[in-house]
Amino acid sequence: MEKKNNQLIVNAIENGMVLDHIPSESIFAVIDILGLSSCTNQITIGSNLESKSLGRKGIIKIADRYFKNDEINKIALVAPKATINVIKDYKVVEKKRITIPDEIEGIAKCSNPLCVTNNQAIKTKFKTVVKEDTVEFVCRYCEKTTDIKSLKIIPQ
Amino acid sequence: MAKSLISIRDFSTEEILHILDIATEMEQNKSQNILQGKVIACLFFEPSTRTRLSFETAANRLGARVIGFSDVGNTSISKGESLKDTIKMVANYVDMIIMRHPLEGAARYASEICNLPIVNAGDGANQHPSQTLLDLYTIRETQGRLENIAINMVGDLKYGRTVHSLLQALSNFNASFFFTSPDSLKMPDEYKEFLNERGLHYEETSSLNEYINCCDILYMTRVQQERFRNPMEYEKVKNFFRLDASMLEGVKPNMKILHPLPRINEIATDVDDTPYAYFYKQAENGMYVRMAIIAYLLGYK
Ligand SMILES: [Zn+2]
Fold this sequence. Notes:
The complex is a heterodimer of chains A (156) and B (301). With 156 residues, chain A is mainly beta.
């Protein structure tokens, strides 16, 4: 019964990618990071679905599109526990975990208002520092640390 | 990419010591024509007469010529020119750019968009590496060594970038630290954690008298009024962190008082005539250290 419900909420796709285990509050950030608002493929978005590990989770299914690893890894900023299912012919042919990139460019804003990147047309660059249960971002320019809660995503 | 000095962390310990050695050489021979024919830009997007004069004199004493501006008042920047365009334009004319900018990270950005050595003469509250190098030079000059120095940092330890950079630099030389500040301006936890990780010792106090007799260096800084919401609080703190000659009776004979200047009232003028005052010589040292930085980045030795 439960399974049937789930399928009702989020339809299976023939080919494409399913991004699962996204924290519900990060769903729109993921949409921004991957530039999905300007994507013309069929996209199914589910939010506030029940999840054992996250409480409430979000899921995004994108038909007929396969993101490269370095593209998809960008969502690690807001969804470090996401799993990626590669779907071909209704079957999961590959399951991937997100890996946090060492450096990220142009995805997020520096939280320091006096940073040069917030005052001139300059692409942001951060080094990621993985702590016990969180990630921090050290700005290449102002050298200040932005934590995950203060991280604002620049829509792509 | 050309070697630049943006943050003190850009230089290894060996490089830092090498710069200090060149600076010693510069102090012994204050005019050298090793950079004859070179042109250096001093771009001060934010005024700082003291720092600018020190850099410009340093360049002149090496035989280089200097162009630039001391504030943005009459330049195209005040008409909205981007930092990128200013740097790109000036980079076509000169061999090196020395720059001060109110935005944090401006110098790092400049170093990425042109192929010249950039010297960061201050980027907002972020970095001012020539100050750190001149502090190290002065500490070595007064103590004969950089290792195992006991330093007492006094004043605004929360916002003071000078003390933060100096702390990081001295952590490579097994220093021990005393932090003397009002409760509201204490050394941030991240720096104390940094010392813990490296196994370096520190003590904290809000009394200037407490550790004054056990340090080799008394590093005074300004406590600025704008850091306090309550003016009464500032008045109280201001006098509490004021050093006068009577407080120096029990200090170590080798102890020296440093201050990045300008001072407001945190060091009484009767301190100037004691054998412990060293802040004027410290400012003079800035010129030798800046000569060394410029010469080194332009390929000298
Ligand atoms: Zn920044």
